[in-house]
Amino acid sequence: MIKANNPDRKSWIPVSKDSDFPIQNIPFGIFKTHTTGPAVGSRIGNTVINLAEVANQGYFDGLKLPDKTVFQKSRLNEFIGLGKSVTNAVRDRIAELFDEKNTDAKNDKELISQALHDADDVEMLMPVEVGDYTDFYSSEEHARNVGTMFRDPDNALLPNWKHLPVGYHGRSSSIVVSGTNIHRPKGQTKPADSDQPVFGPCKLFDFELEMAFVTGKKTGLGESVTTGEAENHIFGLVLFNDLSARDIQKWEYQPLGPFLAKSFGSVISPWIVTLEAFEPFRTDGPQQKPEVMDYLKFQGKKSYDITLDVFLQPENSQEHRVCRSNFKYLYWNMAQQLAHQTVNGCNINVGDMYASGTISGPERESFGSMLEISWKGTNPLKLPNGEERKFIQDNDSIIMRGFAQNDKIRIGFGESRTKILPAK
Ligand code: CA
After folding, report:
1. Which of 85, 109, 125 represents a domain boundary (last residue)?
2. Other CB atoms within 10 Å distance of the CB of residue 365
3. 320 is an active site residue
4. φ and ψ of 101, to 5 deg
5. Which CATH number do you get for residue 160?
6. How far is the CA of 281 from the centre of ligand 1 (A)?
7. CA-CA distance, 95 to 92, in Å (whole number)?
8. Which of 325, 328, 319 is nearest to 365 (CA)?
9. Residues 90 and 147 in one domain
10. Does 286 share its domain with 259?
11. Is the pTM of this model over 0.85?
12. 333 has pLDDT over 90
């Protein structure tokens, strides 16, 4: 068993009951303060741990690290690339160091003063340099809702949908960390009452509730990753808000798929939570019918029970939850996505990001986009402040949170937050 996952362990760092970051989480991220960093960090409770400083003080001695500078970086790629045998050993060492039974560490004034920061005093940065980015379309409920709205309720899924995890290659340069605000994009749209396209700010601005996994092990050109090997290539997960311009998308997407409607900004949560931390929350995904091809078959529980929430906060108003969904609703699991991505011999790299596609559940309360919640704008969402929303307005903030919980522990991401600014 991974030592860091011991559910009975408690930390000498205070952790509130509803914290996403108990000592069993130990995520990885990149942070800076006004005096230190950027550096690799982890987090327990409301305390950010400077791992470069922990290494400096010798607490990682004996682990198979190439040198201590791997924590003095502005991105996690090099650390992640050391492989799971090293990154899991670092997680275990952090768990031992901050275990309440470790009185030596607890009384180490230099460790406390040099390596620990209040989370409110640090700025979180992009955790990885994203090389390639893929956006899948793996929620059956979402695909059905969109197919029903835009095509044919009787044939909502396209013929390929249950045979392969549909996806497209997206833009990595505009994936940004929580706290980055995004301007409403401008572009071409074609109004329904016009036979000519027009140019201007997007009118149908939307979020998409997604999760993304980050790969931690590269492959060579021509190699394929099997569903059985896939988890060895997946370092961890983030929340992923795939902002979308529905009116731009509608005009541009045929025949090659989404383009400028998606590439103006996607906002992730700053802490990468390792796949290992979610081990206690494995579950079965939906039953797959018809039977999938051999390269997409898998053994065991390959999904995870992770609650996913979206909140909308109008300017000068309270945040209001508009969606509660769950990662386990996804029809295609991560192992299948990675097997499909590489079945043709496409090589992958450390730090690539693979988003799930919008994760919708069966009810309106679990729909993962305004497109679905307002059903193309025909059923506006009522907010507690008396306002209504069909889509996202300027100066609205969108906040995503996610956590897995059992009777002993809660493992979460913190949040992905962005405010939508007027078009430039
Ligand atoms: Ca998407």
Report:
1. 125
2. 12
3. no
4. -80, -15
5. 3.90.850.10
6. 24
7. 5
8. 325
9. no
10. yes
11. yes
12. yes
The whole-angstrom separation of Cα 17 and Cα 73 is: 32
Ion ligand 1: residue ranges with CB closer than 5 A? 135, 208, 242
The single residue of 142, 163, 183, 233 carrying the catalytic annotation is 142
**Residues 371-390, mean pLDDT to the nearest whole number:** 97
Show the tokens assigned to 260. 């400028």
Q: Which residues form the domain of 398?
A: 133-421
Per-residue pLDDT, 2: 80
- Centroid of ligand 1 to alpha carbon of 167 (angstroms): 9
Q: Which of 275, 331, 335 is nearest to 140 (CA)?
A: 331
340 backbone dihedrals φ, ψ, rounded to 5° = -70, -45
Q: Contact, 261 vs 246, CB < 8 A? A: yes
Percent of the chain with pLDDT over 90: 97
d(CA 143, ligand 1 centre) in Å = 11
DSSP code of 260? T
Mean pLDDT of 293-297: 98
- Cα 240 to averaged position of ligand 1 atoms, centre (Å): 9
Query: How far, in Å, from the CA of 213 to the mean position of ligand 1?
Result: 14
Tokens of 147: 């197919």
Question: Positive or negative, the Cα torsion across 169, 173, 177, 182?
Answer: negative
Could you tell me the distance, in angstroms and rounded to a whole number, from the CA of residue 242 to the centre of ligand 1? Answer: 5
Q: 30-49 pLDDT, tens per residue?
A: 999 999 989 999 999 999 99
Distance 209 CA to ligand 1 centre (A): 8
Q: Tell me how far apart the alpha carbons of residues 106 and 109 are, in angstroms, rounded to a whole number.
A: 8
Distance of CA 283 to the CA centre of its chain: 19
What mean pLDDT do residues 341-361 have?
98
> 125, 148, 173: which is the final residue of a domain?
125
